[in-house]
Amino acid sequence: MSAPTAAVGRGQPRLEGRQKVTGTARYAVEHPVDGLVYGWAVQADVAKARIVRVDDAAALAEPGVLAVLSYANAPRLAPVESEELLLLQRPRVHYRGEIVALVVAETLEAAREGALLVRIDYDTEPHSSVLTERHPSLYKPDKVNPNFPTDTFVGDFDAGYEAAEVRLDQTYRTPAYHNNPMEPHASTAQWQQGRLLVHDSSQGSTDVRDTLAGLFELSAGSVRVTAEHVGGGFGSKGTPRCTPVLAAMAARHVDRPVRLALTRQQLFGPIGYRTPIIQRVRLGADADGRLAAICHDAISQSSTTTEFAEQTAVLTRGLYAAPHRRTTHRLARLDVPTPSWMRAPGECPGSFALESAMDELAVACGIDPIELRIRNDTDRHPEEDLPFSSRNLVACLRDGARRFGWADRDPTPAVRRQGRWLVGTGMAGATYPARTPGASARARAHPDGTYQVDIDATDIGTGARTALWQVATEALGVPGDRVRIGIGDSDLPRAYVAGGSTGTAGWSLAVDKACRSLRRQLQEQYAAAVPAEGLTVSTDTAAEVAALTQVARYAFGAHFAQVRVDVDSGEVRVGRMLGVFATGRVVNPSTARSQLIGGMTMGLSMALHEEGLLDHRFGDWVNRDLATYHVSACADVERIEAYWVAEEDDRVNPLGIKGLGEIGIVGSAAAVANAVYHATGVRFRTLPIQLDKLL
Ligand code: MOS
């Protein structure tokens, strides 16, 4: 037998890469279905209202239009936890852009035309859609996403801060950010003898299956959701969304399979976004920069239908040592769509505030910003009061400084001139939880010497399928071309969504266990000869992960950026970004690097470009396409590098894997903003940093 060809730790191209670039990979609305009809969503053009009347006569007169669904005639849904999924049930509008009707037609064109002809009369009410520090609706949520305490207190912040030699008190503001995956939210739904089959663009088809079963009052076995290929999500497909629900309702109503894809413009609202956030950070330190007191107060927004509480200040609970600490979260309930997950919800915007404040503290103390972070390192999580399974923040900082060439940096701002450009460098620290959720998996040996490994994991473009194949191949100890991986189907063994950077750790553990158990059974009972009927092993790791040692599990990182700012126009160009990360064992260096530089670029995008601009008169975003909402691409950074330090961590989980899908964006925006300060001497506490603000 030849050696395994896909060992863990070796760079591997994506298994489905060829299918994707040749257009044969099937996405949610590319499955061929007989008798297919099309849906088109109609959105409210007022922010808060009662719907008085839906006039569908003109739409129904349009050739090809089969139905107009609204609160008046749509199939009834059973209550579920997320109220925003109770679509077309009540004559209420909670935000501008809410889907209030769905036109179903024989062709996409007829559905779109019909949607333009639907007339809705509203009884409007005054709305409130702008987040402020003193919004009258501000309240303290019971917990923050996904399950963290809202506020935490260690020591006595006020006393510690009062007594500190150096005090910093600053407020940082970030706007709404829209996830903008390449593939919009899209679903194809069909009812087959009472069973519901949905092809959905989702980060987790098991959750979508369970939610649809709840809404339509079906057993879980009566619903199947697939998500074989998904064109990105960045969190916006991490929870069940409107498209599978609407497509299933419409399919039931017209008794035909229904395909529904949102347009790019329709993604700005109904599918979630990163909330605008106001963050006040107070740091108290001695003259040497040793932190005595840290306070991080975050205010974000939620909707009037479903609560989403961003865990903005949670990273401040564990990144640096300090005897006195307070973190709080408050929410305003506005007449806006419900915010949701967007790549590193919490840690990403939280790190912009904390890591900007740390840079300001370094300046105030006259200390190098890397040295400041090293002085405040800790080997125990300050709030969980547990040792870290591994904590290599300092190793990342030192390795990054060496690679980037930080040593001879002159901290003086606004003194480096190259022609018409002012040049500066900045850095930031990063951390992200390294969770390992339990999962189930199944491995099957066939008599022909091939293996089938199945798990309802999702590959949203990250390379998850390939990583699991590497793990399975190594565990089975056979050549990679004999191993097939099945994912993206709720009929497969249950697994947690592709979210929270948990996939590679949690799914791999289940896959590894199933494959090793299968291999052992083959060797012990069948002398490695597969029985004629094949052999299947199913495993679940829920008990195993629940029994893992009590330690604090986190990945760490360090970001470095070099920018130049045009002295006349204020244009900011990013010449270089460099990140070093400590993320345990890296399964596939090729796709890991892609995830890290993708996250770093998304942080650059946040620092300089992305901004949901809300028109308060209408309560809606003005920029709602990729021409007016600018998302950075690889061309926006001239040189980008991602590295990782060797980290063997057998306490984080038995495979030593920490997820790395999100840590790349954590701290990245702060590194860019800190570099802009170093270049210009202008401190930006409100993102994005745009040229008009630099002049
Ligand atoms: Mo990610 S924002 O946890 O899907």
Automatic annotation (TrEMBL):
What Enzyme Commission number does this protein have? 1.17.1.4
Pfam families assigned to the protein according to its UniProt record, in alphabetical order = Ald_Xan_dh_C, MoCoBD_1, MoCoBD_2
Q: Which residues form a coiled coil?
A: none
Domain Aldehyde oxidase/xanthine dehydrogenase a/b hammerhead residues, every copy: 22-126
Organism of provenance: Plantactinospora soyae
Q: Which GO terms fall under molecular function for this chain's record?
A: iron ion binding; xanthine dehydrogenase activity
- This protein's superkingdom? Bacteria
Q: Which UniProt keywords apply?
A: Molybdenum, Oxidoreductase
Record-linked InterPro entries: Ald_Oxase/Xan_DH_a/b (IPR000674), Ald_Oxase/Xan_DH_a/b_sf (IPR036856), Ald_Oxase/xanthine_DH-like (IPR016208), AldOxase/xan_DH_MoCoBD1 (IPR008274), AldOxase/xan_DH_MoCoBD2 (IPR046867), AldOxase/xan_DH_Mopterin-bd_sf (IPR037165)
Q: Is the Nucleotide-binding keyword given for this protein?
A: no
Q: What is this protein called?
A: Xanthine dehydrogenase YagR molybdenum-binding subunit
